[in-house]
Give the backbone structure.
Amino acid sequence: MRYSSDHKSETRERVLREAASEIRAKGPAGIAVAGIMARAGLTHGGFYAHFASKDELVAEAISAMFVDARGRFDRGLAETDPRAALSTYVEFYLSKRHRDSRERGCPLAALSSDLSRLGDEPRARFGQGLETLTHWIGKALAGLGIADPDREASSMLAELVGALSLSRAAADPAQSDAILERSKAAIALRYGLAE
């Protein structure tokens, strides 16, 4: 039975969503193609109709993660002024919900410690995603009149990712919450996001 190109595209997207979720939760080395395919409602044998290798799947899933992250930021920036968009983004990024949702969270925090063990293509996709998110934060900061918005965007993103990663690593819930709250307050103060 032949399927339409739309069916193949939809199936591929379903596999990528499952792969992205598993990569965020377990890291790229911890994923199992058979499990991803099963959760997507497919057999392991169907994998090669969509991807040449596991490395290609990982690279494509990383790109899909950044598309999802960019979409969230774009929606916030399109609907409101730059100050409100950044405030909403920081509030989301440093929230307990985001901390506790690794399988749907930011690819930067989920993957940065694993990148040195990945191949060139997944690392390139990560770099592209990093550059795009940094650019969009810089664009919002420029809208606030921040001097050198690209440098500040890189610094803000590094603090967001670092705070989220540390809060996930902290065993003590109170310490974890404090990391999120202190960074959120510091960023809001530094960029005039507090109301």
In short: Residues 18 and 101 are 14 Å apart (CA to CA). The radius of gyration is 18 Å. The chain has a mean pLDDT of 88. The chain has nine helices and no strands.
